[in-house]
Structure formats: C-alpha cells, structure tokens
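Sample entry (562 residues):
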Amino acid sequence: MVAVVIMLLTMDVSFVELWQQMCHAGYWLVVIIVMWLGLYCMNALTWRTIIRGSGECNVPFLHILKVTISGFALNYATPVGLLGGEPYKILEMKPYIGVQRASSSVLLFAMMHIFSHFWYWLTAVVLYLLFLPVNALTGTLLLLVTLFCAAAIYLFVKGYKNGMVVKLIGWVSHIPGCRGWGRRFAETHADDLRKIDSQIAALQSQNRRAFFTSFFLEYFGRIFQSFEIFFMLLLFADAPANAMTFIHSLIILAFTSLFANMLFFLPLQLGGREGGFAMSVGSIYTGQVAMGVSLLVRIREIFWTIVGLLLIKVPSFCRKPSGDVTTFAILAAGEGSRMADEGIEVPKPLVTINGEALIDRLVRIFLQCGAKDIVVITNDRTPLVQQHLQGLADRGLPVRFVVKTTPSSMHSLYELRHVLGRGRFCLTTVDTVFQEDEFRAFIEQVRHTTCDGMMAVTDFVDDECPLWISIDEHQNITGFHDTQNGCRYVSGGIYCLNDKAFATLNRCIAEGQSRMRNFQRALIADGFCLKAWLFKKILDVDHASDIPKAETFLHPSTPCLS
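Predicted structure, serialized as tokens:
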C-alpha cells in the first residue's frame, strides 16, 4: 500500500482526490486478495484431482489448500525463485500418500501448471492478432512465442505419454559438475524413478478424465487470474468494464508472465514482473498505469507470501496415518498334513526354500522391514518348530511364540490378539512365498495410509480354494468371495490391520464363525476401510511339488538368516 501511496503522490491531484484514490485502491486490493483465494482453491482442486488420478486421496481439501498456498509462497521467497515449494509439498504429503505418489503428484501438478501456461500464452497470441495492431517487430515476436509454445507443448505431450523423470535425470547426468551425482542418483533410485514415470504416464493414458479435468482447472485458472489486471485497469486507467478491457487484461497478464517466467531464477521475480508490466501495459495504455498495476500486484504477492509462510506453522488438517509397522505375526499352527502325506518329514515351517527355512525367511524379511516384535503361533504337535523358535530367541532376535493347536487361521489370530498389543501389525501365514522388494513396498505403503487395513492381492491364482477379492477404482476392497464372480484378484495371505479389528474378531468367535475369510467379510460388514495392494505373484507352499516352484520363483536366493 505504501508503494501505491507514493505513486498517487506523484499524480497531479488534490488531497481529497488523493484520499478517494487511496480508498478506491484499497477496495480493489481487498477484492484482488479475495479473488486470489479462489484461484488458490482452483490450484488445490487441480492437485487433489491429480492425486485421485492415481488412487484414493484421504487428505482433506483444507490441508491441500494450506500446502498449496505455502508451496507457492516458498516458490516466491526462495533465493532461487520457483524452486522451493515442490520439496516442501512432497514432504508434507509423504506421510499420507507415500513418497512415490507425493513426488509424482507434485511433479504432475507443476507440469500441468506450466503446460496450461503454454496454452494460455498461445491464446494471448491469437487474441493479439485479432484485436491489436501488429507491425513487423510485433509480428516477429508473436511468431517466436508461437513456435516456443508449440515446441514446449509437444515436449510436454511426449512427457505425459512416456514419463520424463528418468530422461530428465539422464540430461542432468550430462551437465558438467553434475555427472557423478546424476549417475549415482539414477542408479540408486532407478526403480522409484521408473514408478514415478509410470504414474505420470498413467494419468494421461489410463485416467484421461483426471488429466483433462486438471488441465481445464489450471487453464481457466489463468483466465480467472486475468480479472486481477481487469480490476486494476478499471482503477488506474479508467478503462470501461467491457469485453475489450478484459481481452487487454488477458494479453497483458500473458506476456507479463511469459517475461517474468523467463527470469524464474530471481527471488520474488524482482524486476522481471515490473519489466513485464512496463512492456505489456505500456504498449496499450501508459507508463503510469503500468507502474500502478505492477505495484498493486507486488503488494498482493507479498501479502500471500506472508500468509503462506505463516501457514507452514499451522497444524495439519489431516488425520495422521496410524504409524509405523513394527509388530509382525506368523500363523504356523497348521498341521501340514498334505506335505506329510507326500513324504515331507519336517514340519512345514522348517521346509527349506533355496536352503532357507520358510519361518527363517519370514523372520529375516520382517527384520529388514524394521520389525521390533515378531510373534509366531505354532501347534503343540511340532516340538521341532518350538525348539527352532526358541533358538532364534536365544540368539537375541525379537521372536516370541505361542503354542496352541487351533482349528483355523482365524482362531490362531484370536489366540494372538493379546500378544500383538495396540496399533498396527502385519500378519501372514508361514507358507506364503513372495518377492522381498514387493513386500517392502507393501509395508512402506501401509506406513503412509490412513485406512483401517491393507491386504495383499495377486492375479496369479495358485491356491486350490482361492479367496476372490472385489475392489473398486480406488483399490478399496468391497467383498471377499468363494467363487470368481467377475473378480480379477485373489487374496495373497498377507494382512496389515490394527487393534480395532479385534472387536470384530471377538464377535466372530462368539458367533461360532470359522475360517479367516469369514473374519475378513465381517470387517467389511463392520465398515472397515480395507485397501488392496497388488503383488505380481504369491505362492503357497502346500504340497511337495510347490517347493521347486518356490525355489525357481525366488532364484537367485538371498542371504539366509545368520
């Protein structure tokens, strides 16, 4: 406001007229600030649309709006302009949707934000040719802008189809001084980078509705932003409130933002914004109008930058994820009668796959995933398993076991309910064989979700009596079925739940229910939010013939528990 006062003092007006001008400027400044709240809401809605394009978004809109405003504020204020907000947004969203979805959604939002700008600038070129006089110099500049925007749109379309993160890191690896870092980063995070690229490509190829919705929100957000210049032209240039003034506003904003973004490396785009207004506004109106517009825009930017930086300190509006998964359970109370009938003399938990016992493999993987407590239930007819587990505990491993013969997996979990304690736990049967990297990704996703539980599913059907699972478009489990009935996935025998599930479990036992699948159905009936997580392949070692299958599936074997 001080800058506006200085500008008004330079005008040849009386004190009364000056006061009226100040009041008028203050009124329009308030209108513009409120208008920008609406624009930030559109940005936040774009981001939420992109997040939902890759799965469920459990983050409240108010939190997304808060992070959006703060992200833009950091972009304005950081020493290297427009680069500080993205890391902050990833860190803010990581606890709720995981680092990969957070990274891809932030990158997709930035891409869509820039992509819409190129279309907006092309729109301004067309309007300029239609409504403003064009000389040789102006025509040349417009042609260059058109070629620049068309080339950029082509590159973005290619990036949306194939992803662009891996290629971007590859380009960075060829920059002198960044070669070593770029190559190390690409090698260390190769899998994560490919997954982010696949999520980028999926938005355009698989969820076109989310793609076009986010695009039009951003594009019309730029059109909506033109009203800021429109209001200022009414204030400083006494321009009529008609369509032509709005077209002038759109053209002015487009070419000012184009010039300012070319100087993105300047904090607060100092000088770039003012220079852009001087050229674009001055070519249509006067230099005095250009100065007034640039000063009022700068005041608005400073206001929202301060608000955004203060919002960083505001507590999250989100329901926090339930926390880490450090408790793991193994159901090993089955008799393994089929394998015994087929000549396998050792109990199933001690059957070796590539030289490692099934129970040892699970314990090792759980420890690598941060397990602090591993609880095993085994039956009272397998003293060899009890001795083996006691040996693991004697070596200082966090292994405890319960000896109890139970009629089903559901009853085994019932016997463990008091041992598992409060919070989240991961449960699996001892004969479940999976790839370790897929399991680690599963646990990582569980740590970042706010749902009540997550269960492994696979489209590889290997079970004699599979449990078919129906899911919706957001990977929510909607039912458990004994027959396929149009379902694509089956249960993988890996469950992550929390202690809230024990109330349902107690009721199932009291009602005389049996089998784990009936307990899972009861969770859905009780309103639990259960998510499905896809594994490419999961095997059950139920027969002697399954042992070589599992060894081939896991080959080459990983180091055994030592």
